[in-house]
Amino acid sequence: MGIRLDLSSxxxxxxxxxxMFIISVAALLLFLSIIAVxxxxxxxxxxxxxxxxxxxxxxxxxxxxxxxxxxLYPRLQLRFSQTSHDKGFILEQEPRPGTIVKAGRxxxxxxxxxxxxxxxxxxxxxNIDEVRMDLQTIYTSAGNLPLLSLREPLMYEFxxxxxxIILAQKPEPGTDISGPMILELVVSRGRENTTxxxxxxxxxxxxxxxxxxxxxxxxxxxxxxxxxxxxRGETVVLxxxxxxxxxxxxxxxxxxxxxxxxxxxxxxxGIFSHSIPPNPYPLxxxxxxxxxxxxxxxxxxxxxxxxxxxxxxKLPVGTVLVLSMLNRELHRETIGIR
Length: 338
Prior knowledge:
Elements: H1 7-45, E1 49-51, H2 60-69, E2 73-79, E3 90-94, E4 100-102, E5 106-112, H3 128-137, E6 148-150, E7 155-157, E8 166-170, E9 181-188, E10 195-197, H4 206-216, E11 219-225, E12 236-240, E13 246-248, E14 252-258, E15 267-276, E16 283-290, E17 296-304, E18 307-316, E19 320-325, E20 328-334
């Protein structure tokens, strides 16, 4: 008995399965395409957004840190400005503060280069300490050569102006700067024969006495001795000249203080002393303590004319005393350790 093949049925069967296969592949490709497109749009729309901070008026380093926190990047432009005081600060920014942008966006920052220095400024009436700072930071050429440098020593004159005020200058204001120049200044040393009134210091504890010394403008010198009778420790027990005496401004007021009554095991007391070269007028002097713990404490700030600077202290052993004038360190020493 023979088997008769129906070719037309086989062809239909194959055609049906082939059509199903093609449809399945097409559906799979469509599904994968939809997934790919969805992932793409999710990635695009899901990119982190951030708000542009306001950095106008801030120093460049501070502005860069703020942009870094927001995951933004700077594009810097330099521009000369109308004043020397905004050198290194941000003048403009784009986009504006508060704008919502995607992370990674570049922010245009316009940074001040200061003023174009081509003429000698008018320094008359300004404080010499401020002018020194300007000469160090502003009047510098591209090759780091100072366009203006001070002739030392300075010339001082008695005048009605406060001490440290510039009275005259050479070259005169407005002189063209064609290269490095020497600046000669005449500085006020204050009124001649100026007097001060010696305050009542006897009977005060050291800390109150130091406050009065700082505000009264007197010159001073400390010494110490042991307590006697009912005297309290760390107290002024003698002053020469006496209270309410009117004396020339640089008259040395001798002050005797008593030693502390009690000291902790790790404490030491004494009189700090260091010789400071005489100044034409009193300059700010600061004494600080660097404790073993790393803490820094300001002990005393006073305008001082120079000479032997003294200060009574009670501090932990190993403390470092740092003496500075106009933010320039003059001397440091460790107490209680030899």
